[in-house]
Amino acid sequence: TILDDLGLLPALDWLVTDFGQHTGLRVALICNTHTVAFNDAASTALFRIVQEGLTNVARHATSATKVVVDLRCDRANCELAIHNDGAVVTHSTKPAAGRPPSSGIAGIRERVRRLGGTFAAGPLAQGGYRIQLSIPRKAIALD
Q: How far is CA 36 from CA 47, 61, 139, in A?
């Protein structure tokens, strides 16, 4: 309800604060959105993308101490990056017995695709892991 009541940026602030309190990780939220008024579909999609990105950090980034969520918009695009400093853990493509396969990255990729954006994810050269996406501003803004 915080997303509906207060909008995307306060909802993201709450999400990263809550995540940090529950995991003990330092989480930084950087928002430079040039007063973009996000439409409802984009607000929901971006909130869920950040939520899933943080969940992936908690599940898969061993020895992570810091996570940065960086949302920036210019006149043409909005860029979102989520990166952490943990070791990348590779998992088997087979789900554990009785559990469905993980759909975290696939879900993020699908949300970005629906908004007409691009998506990339992978390990960083200096260590850690990054999720990076770019969405045309016209697909997410009310203006």
A: 15, 32, 12
Q: CB–CB of 84/128 below 8 Å? A: yes
Q: Tell me if 32 sits within 8 A of 71, measured CB to CB.
A: yes
Return the structure tokens found at 38: 């996000």
| SS3 of the chain: helix, strand, coil, percent, to 5 | 40, 30, 30
pLDDT tens per residue across all 143 residues of the chain:
889 999 999 999 999 999 999 999 999 999 999 789 999 999 999 999 999 999 999 999 899 999 999 999 999 999 999 999 998 766 544 444 554 445 689 999 999 999 999 999 999 998 999 999 999 999 999 87
Task: Return the amino acid letter for 1.
Answer: T
Residues 102, 13: Cα–Cα separation, whole Å: 26
